Amino acid sequence: MRQRISDVNMNNVTFIPGNRRRCILVDQITALQVCVVVLVCLKKAVIGSPVECPDQEIGGTSCTISAEKLLDRAVQHAELIYRFSEEAKLLFDELLDLFGGMNQYIPGGAVCAPKTVPVPLSKSEIQQISDRWLLHSVLILVQFWIEPLVNLQKSLENYKSAPIGLLSRNQWIASKLSSLEEGLLVLIRQILGEGGLVLGPPEDVSDNTLSVDAFETVRRDYSVIYCFRKDAHKIQTFLKLLKCRQVDRENCSLF
Amino acid sequence: MAHSLSLRLLYLGLMCGKGLVFAQGSELFSQASDANKGPHLTGCRSSEQVTFRCWWSSGTFQNLSEPGALRIFYQTKALSSDWYECPDYTQTVKNECYFNKTFTRIWTSYCIQLRSVPQNTTYDEACFTVENIVYPDPPVGLNWTLLNVSRSGLHFDVLVRWTPPPSADVKTGWMSLVYQLQYRVKNNTYWEMQELESGTQQSIYGLHTDKEYEVRVRCKMSAFNNFGEFSDSVFLQVAQIPSKESTFPMALVLSFILIGVVILLIFIVISQQQRLMVIFLPPIPAPKIKGIDPELLKNGKLDQLDSLLSSHDMYKPDFYHEDPWVEFIQLDIDDPADKKNSDTQHLLGLSHSGSSHNLNLKNDDDSGRASCYDPEIPDPEDLASLLHNHSEQGEHQHSLVSRSSSANPDFQQESEVVETPIQTQPSWVNMDFYAQVSDFTPAGEVMLSPGQLNTSPEKKKKEEENEKKIQFQLVSDGAYTSETTARQFSADVPSSPGPEQEYQAFPTQGVEGNLWNGDYLVSVNDSQTPYLLLEPPPAPVLPPISDYTVAEPPSKSSFIAAYGLSAQPR
Lengths: 255, 570
Description:
- The complex is a heterodimer.
- Chain A is mainly alpha-helical.
- Chain A is built from seven helices and two strands; from the N terminus they run E-E-H-H-H-H-H-H-H.
- Chain B is an alpha+beta fold.
- In chain B, the strands form five sheets. A four-stranded antiparallel β-sheet of chain B has the order 4-3-6-7, with no helix packed on it. Chain B has a four-stranded antiparallel β-sheet with strand order 11-10-13-14, with no helix packed on it. Chain B has a three-stranded antiparallel β-sheet with strand order 1-2-5, with no helix packed on it.
- In chain B, helix 9 (about 455-475) packs antiparallel against helix 10.
- The radius of gyration of chain B is 59 Å and the shape is elongated.
- The interface between A and B is large, with 49 and 53 residues.
- Chain A: GO terms for molecular function: hormone activity.
């Protein structure tokens, strides 16, 4: 049973099972319009702009937005990003089902590019690492995925029958990733009191050459969505862990 | 390029794919019947996103069912590309491989293979990432509290609470769970589902009292599709609150009051029936003559009526000075017909002799106003004597019947005119007080006739005439009359040219009256052929004039006009 975001209300997210593929696509369009509009407004309300401290220097610590609020906004961003990536992946699955199923395109396990900075992947390890490390890991991840998603958007536009929901979600995710990156930089400054570890332009691991082979193109595009979805969940979990630690260190550090 | 892309995809889709058996969630492991399959993986699950387990079945291969025959190997990119054997085969559970937290990496893909080592065959393989196989444990600690009961006592609301599964680390934010609550009437087959709830409580509204409900909860990771098992059901029931004692007498008292009010109303209605009838159903005012009791008119004797009516102001003799049409009927006393004159004199003398009975006839020009407005009703005895004296004129004296005759028209006219005042007297005997509208001319004028008392000859003629009228109507509905019907008409006519007919409207010339007045047509039929029914009669046929002559302008008769007129409704 597949589920969709129907109403982007932070506190009361409702899922509606999508029963039919074709109807889903139409529903997606309308739902997405609403979602995008709401999210655009929400962005202003929730995240705003973490660097928009009125009459303050950008690097100044006199910005009045608390770390907890920033974390809250970051967590909400991550949740939404993950949900949208989940839906984008499902839409892509449906698109592929029309052409014989997704089994051929699923990256076996190694296709998801390893990150430049290894990130711990078990709970115990994660709970052992410091806040600093967590924040940096998240920042690295976010920074890593901005460009591939932009490329994916360009590639999807070449598809003949790509659903509009897929395209719009992808676009939205890309934009929100950028804002999340900004927020994380501010967070790092606030929590850690240091300048953000801005990496250089990410190493171009993915093959950017436009492959003439349609199969490879589709496979690559699908792997982008697939792997990004995984990482979006990771980002969300990390941020939640971080939020708990910031609020209540003793209870949240149990492992 | 897009077009070629889609085509390629379609083509490739039809080929055998690169067989990576992968599915997420429930599609991970095929759930086909185990009976027909060989050894296969039945499932891999994680309950807390920290560890996971895999199970397999030997299927139909009984020789592989002993422990150790089939083994699990896994590969994960996190460690290396090598295949490692299952780190822990669970002792207590058959065919289970357990990966503890040191071997579990989230967001990492695992591939599991079921192998038979001696035969070096791989029976099944599955790849997944751990977060995709997370099926949370059911929530625990389900309980409910009553929120409120409706005023009618028929419905109630509850608040159901639960706690997250203890194995799921929700507190630190490791897992984000959403819950789904289901409830049903006990022993019903259909579960009502609530929407997903991220908190740990939910309200249910609109439950029925006196019904037992069953409630259960399950959870899953948010934005994933894998629901865990249902929690243990909790039963809730609220007894229906019996109706309060205080309301019962209230209802009784109200009903008694209502019945009393109804009885009172009925009593009032019965006792004041007459007055209420007058108020609600006012009597329709009967036609009244001012100063005259209608009862007297109905039942009173003639002499009483006489006195009444003569004393009435309405019937002053000068009432008719302005009546114009009376002047049409002029009594020409200078006519050289002596017989008639003598008759006239005689009648006039008689009329004077009858003055003792308040007959108010004048022997001047106004005598022609033998109209229905003549108030005097002569004494029946006197009138009878009049009738007797003028028996030779009795044929046409009984009523205002006009005769058609082929005699001198002028003479006839005059005789008719002369006779009309005389005829009014005897005819008064048979007349009602009020005049009747007998017919409408085609020109729209009203023909009046005196009503008739019970005299059989007139009645007969009336019926006869009605019959003829009906017959004529049959004729006049169509434009033409057939020859046969015309003949019928003519056959019905008595041969005598002078049937006594009550009232007709005959213009001095013209066809209009002739056309629709069946009597006339019938009367002239004997002298004419049937085809001439709709044609104007020849002029010398004398139209007898009744007392109630309708003056109309003569019009040129033509067949077309006649045809048009015959189609007019009467």
